[in-house]
Input
Amino acid sequence: MSATEQARLRLIHHCELSEEAYLDYIAEWEGAGEKVVPGATRREGRSFQEMAEKWKSEERDGNPCLSYVPGTLYFYVEANGRVLGAIHHRHYVNERLRACGGNVGYGVRPSARGRGIGRAMLATLLERLGAEGFDRVMLTCDEDNPASARLIEACGGLLEDKPLFEGIPIRRYWIELGGV
Output
């Protein structure tokens, strides 16, 4: 991605997202028939207003049904508001997230892949978290997802191990935020 293109992109808090931008973003994911990531963006029959309330609640309380901790959802958008990706920062790691998931989950809409969007989005979040005083974050990806592994490693991810999670081999990484 060129510096000019990256300068036109920004990371916004979920409360800044328009309904139109979200519906366009999620429709592409759903139309592609892929598992929507991060999971926090899956609408599962909810209206945009219900999603906005869910994101607000989960930022404060987490999602007890999934044993998830409080987390903040951001969207990576172009100047015109079109969403290219989403990234979810879980404020700390509990036992379940240590096993799989970590502090950060992200996804890039299908039509925006292969342009460095994921890397730019993750790097932007890491800078923000470092400025907010976070020391390090944990991320995981499936072993059979080399693109995600390369992205995490390009942003400073150090491989801790390759455990199985529910029978699926994953890669567990830590990123120290002091040097981002």
